[in-house]
Specification:
single chain; Spore Coat Polysaccharide Biosynthesis Protein SpsA, Chain A; 5-stranded mixed β-barrel; two-stranded antiparallel ribbon; 10 helices; about 25% strand
């Protein structure tokens, strides 16, 4: 069974300045809940209750959020305001949280390698909280855990994207296993549209096997001097060890202002329950 999930949350969130000058972008609220909490709830619902965060400078608010606030608890104890804390209390009760720091911004691959001390020697999930995924039934990570039990290899979530946006994503090509599954044989990080091997873009959900760490250690920096997880996964894909899954659900790019506003409006209309 997969028990652990890694959250790389060390980024600066420059697209949301000045709001993120002193506040982690992951703590920006989608209605009344921080963005990162949606991802953590998705992981815990999938049975991944050991949550690891790769943080950076100025990210202490994330650790504080997943901890008790005794002064606040005392102030609102016995009042009607206690109900506003029910969702985060449930997360804290069900999850176990650990933290480590990425010393410099050297890419997603380096962030995942930094999390090795938290993830250990077993398969683990990775959630990029910028990608908020909303589903009718099982969450995306729950869907992927079931696939891992079947294929026992790295699983990456993908979706079809318009050709004019393809250069913003890692892109895969592969042999179709079924209509929603591909055995990956090519993977390119943010290619020009004319060079993209398909319109199947990688989004921020992964299940990785522990051999990814040895591969990352040997992976040279790519674009912008960053270690790309796509380069490391391509090494494993050459051995047939990577499956791409076209997940069921809707993704919002909350790393952009437009996507963040769209997600907020959707969650207010369809998910938010006044208490």
């Amino acid at each position: 069974m997969i028990r652990k999930c890694l959250f790389p949350v060390a980024g600066y969130g420059t697209r949301f300045l000045p709001a993120t000058k002193s506040m982690p972008k992951e703590m920006l609220p989608i209605v009344n809940k921080p963005l990162v909490q949606y991802g953590v709830e998705e992981a815990i619902d999938a049975g991944l209750c050991e949550i690891g965060f790769v943080t950076g400078r100025g990210k202490r608010a994330i650790a504080d959020h997943f901890d008790m606030n005794y002064e606040l608890e005392h102030q609102i104890e016995g009042t009607g305001k206690e109900k506003y804390l029910e969702s985060i209390r449930s997360v804290i009760e069900r999850g176990v949280f650990s933290f480590t720091r990425q010393s410099a911004m050297r890419g997603l691959g380096d962030a995942i390698l930094t999390g090795e001390r938290l993830m250990g020697d077993q398969a683990f999930g990775v959630i990029l909280s910028d990608d908020l995924c909303v589903t009718e039934g099982d969450g995306v990570m729950s869907q992927m855990v079931k696939l891992y039990e079947e294929f026992n290899c790295c699983i990456i979530a993908i979706q079809e994207v318009p050709q004019d946006k393809i250069e913003k994503f890692g892109v895969i090509a592969g042999d179709e296993i079924r209509s929603d599954l591909y055995r990956v044989n090519d993977m390119v990080e943010k290619p020009p549209a004319a060079e993209a091997p398909s319109n199947l873009a990688i989004i921020g959900r992964y299940i990785l096997t522990p051999d990814i760490f040895d591969v990352l250690r040997k992976t040279p920096p790519g674009k912008n001097g960053e270690v790309q997880i796509t380069d490391a996964l391509m090494t494993l894909a050459k051995e047939g060890k990577v499956v791409a899954y076209k997940f069921e659900g809707t993704r919002f790019d909350c790393g952009s202002v437009d996507g963040f506003v769209e997600a907020t409006n959707y969650c207010y209309q369809h998910i938010y329950e006044p208490v």
